[in-house]
Specification:
Elements: H1 2-20, E1 23-28, H2 33-44, E2 50-52, H3 62-68, H4 77-92, E3 101-105, H5 113-120, E4 125-128, H6 136-139, H7 142-155, E5 161-165, H8 169-172, E6 181-186, E7 194-203, E8 209-218, E9 221-228, H9 236-248, H10 253-260, E10 271-275, E11 279-284, H11 290-302, E12 309-314, H12 323-336, E13 341-345, H13 350-358, E14 366-369, H14 372-382, E15 388-392, H15 400-406, H16 413-416
Parallel strand pairs: 1-3, 1-4, 2-3, 4-5, 5-6, 6-7, 11-15, 12-13, 12-15, 13-14
Antiparallel strand pairs: 7-8, 8-9, 10-11
Helix pairs in contact: 1-3, 1-4, 2-9, 2-10, 5-7, 9-10, 11-12, 12-13, 14-15
């Protein structure tokens, strides 16, 4: 039944796109694509009628649902009938409020996925946020992941745009794979069209973080940008991608900076949540890959406090032959960032613990657990007033359960945490 639903959805979505002809901005990458999608939506929606994926609607089923503008029918035949009726109504009658721009996150898990998605929704603009060893179990090498992502770049015609994070070597190489116009962005690479510098983490006297500020540069001019409640410097890349898109749509830099002040990181992505005992939790539980874990640890390491820092890390999944080396790299980063306590969850994360001890972290400050429930209860007892706790792991590890265990207001879990709907609750 699933394949039949997928086929029918694709047919309806293509007919809708043909009728309304919205600009399609595709966003892909091994990491950072959801944040980039949200930042792009934030900037463009200040001037245009825009729609983006909700939830995790970024695959063969989710993309058509976003194009239709409806939720999944789930396991209900009646629910799917409602979806199809709504799609047919859009095709038969004209909806004058249909979005002029669709910002579509496109996720690839297996070879061939990007070809399917771009055939379904051909992009006018393609954004590639980064390439790294995520889903490498199915691709075997990073080069093959890059090749899959580059399908988006290569399918865009000469009148379109490709927006590339040129701090990532695999992404920057994609300039050779496109015939379209190119807009590049970065922080480290200065030979880009849009860049950020003078990045500062703003903290109040009481230690509370107010956000990140930086200068946004474009063609020799600059504007100051503040991202309230944003912790991760890597989220600045999302802002840069959004600024690149804003310029493509002729928005001025001041308006772009103003719109970015309203940007909020998606749930489970470096969100600051108040914990029990007057502690602070950095909730980065949406998912985890080597690059994003290292970036999160870097953020925790830079926070200046007189209290303890905890890294609560679950397994990074689907890394194939890179499993041990990637987890050991994280263990090194725990020490390099002077984290006080390490708590790991899962079999693969034992490599993190082993390497952290090897690199000099006191073994009495390393705690290894097989389940999130046990880890959460231990953390609840161990944490003290003023501590900062980073919680992160792959989706399958369900690390958000730990956040819920130690957050000050667990009744707000539905509002603040990922995976709180019936599909995930158990």
């Amino acid at each position: 039944m699933t394949s039949l639903v997928q086929w029918f959805l694709a047919k309806l979505a293509k007919l809708i796109l043909k009728k309304y002809n919205p600009d399609i901005i595709g966003v892909t990458g091994s990491f950072g694509k959801t944040s980039a999608k949200e930042a792009i939506y934030t900037v463009l929606s200040s001037k245009f009628n825009v729609r983006r994926n909700i939830k995790n609607y970024n695959n063969e089923i989710g993309l058509p649902l976003t194009i239709i503008g409806t939720s999944s029918g789930g396991r209900s035949v009646g629910g799917w009938l409602v979806v199809f009726v709504k799609a047919l109504a859009l095709i038969i009658w004209r909806d004058k409020n249909y979005p002029e721009i669709l910002v579509l996150e496109m996720a690839v898990d297996h070879p061939g996925d990007m070809t399917y998605l771009t055939n379904l929704a051909p992009c006018k603009i393609g954004v590639v946020t980064g390439v790294g060893p995520v889903h490498i179990e199915y691709f075997k090498t990073i080069e093959k992941i890059a090749k899959e992502k580059s399908v988006m770049v290569s399918h865009i015609n000469k009148n379109g745009w490709v927006v590339l994070n040129c701090d990532n070597e695999y992404v920057c190489e994609m300039t050779k794979a496109t015939r379209s116009r190119i807009s590049s962005y970065g922080i480290v690479n200065h030979d880009v069209d849009i860049k950020a510098s003078e990045i500062l983490m703003s903290q109040h006297e009481d230690g509370q973080i107010s956000g990140l500020s930086f200068k946004l540069f474009y063609k020799g001019s600059s504007v100051p940008v503040l991202l309230p409640n944003i912790l991760g410097e890597h989220l600045i890349y999302a802002a840069l991608a959004a600024a690149s898109i804003g310029r493509i749509y002729d928005m001025n830099m001041v308006d772009i900076a103003s719109a970015l002040r309203t940007f909020r990181a998606p749930k489970g992505r470096m969100n600051l949540i108040v914990g029990i005992k007057n502690t602070y939790i950095i909730d980065d539980t949406y998912n985890a890959g080597p690059d994003s874990v290292l970036a999160a640890l870097n953020v925790l390491g830079k926070i200046a406090i007189d209290h303890h820092k905890f890294a609560v890390l679950g397994d990074m999944l689907e890394l194939g032959d890179f499993t041990e080396s990637s987890h050991r790299d994280v263990g090194k980063a725990v020490c390099n960032n002077k984290i006080d306590y390490l708590i790991t969850v899962g079999d693969k994360s034992k490599f993190i613990a082993s390497e952290a001890e090897k690199q000099g972290l006191d073994k009495d400050n390393i705690f290894v657990f097989s389940s999130v429930e046990k880890a959460g209860l231990f953390l609840q007892d161990k944490m003290e007033e003023g501590d900062f706790i980073l919680v992160k792991g792959s989706q399958g590890m369900r690390m958000e359960k730990i956040v819920k265990e130690v957050m000050a207001e667990p009744l707000k879990a539905q509002e603040l945490l990922v995976r709180q709907d019936e599909k995930w609750l158990d």
